[in-house]
Amino acid sequence: MGSYLFVVVGLVAGILSGLLGIGGGIVMVPALIYFFGFSQHGAQGTTLAAMILPIGLLAALKYYSHGHVSIAVAMFIAMGFFVGGFIGASFVERVPDVMLKRIFGLFMLAVSVKMIFGK
To answer: Could you give the C-alpha distances from 54 to 48, 77, 86, 91, 102, in angstroms and in order?
Structure first.
């Protein structure tokens, strides 16, 4: 399988990230699992590695240029994400792949139901 297909996954994730603020978990993780046969752990780890700076830099700059970025809030979120990502990654190996996939799916389902039917 050509590496260009991974570029396509990144391109789709990037477009959706710039358009909707999503991309990493919602696009790349399922794509790696269902199109490329990755395990849930492998898909999550690869996605996190792909999202290391400067992936979102150009999209964030575009949003910033239109006044849609709170730098202070983004910095606080980044600090929490930095520490939280380490904590989550420290525990994930104890979770069986099937259970992790189900937790991931339930999380996406809960968020989508809230987004569609919530106020």
So the answer is: 12, 16, 19, 26, 30
Residues 61-105 have pLDDT tens digits of 888 888 887 788 778 767 777 777 788 888 888 889 899 889 888
User: Residue 87 to residues 20, 54, 83, 93, 96: CA-CA distances in angstroms?
Assistant: 27, 22, 6, 11, 17
Tokens for 80?
């929490």
CB 18 within 8 A of CB 59: yes
Q: Is the peptide bond before 96 cis (omega within 30 degrees of 0)?
A: no
pLDDT value of residue 21: 66
CA dihedral 88, 89, 90, 92 (to 10 degrees): 80
Q: Which two tokens stand for residue 43?
A: 């898909």
Q: Which of 119, 106, 21, 11 is nearest to 63 (CA)?
A: 21
Q: How many CA atoms lie within 13 A of 24 on its CB side?
A: 13
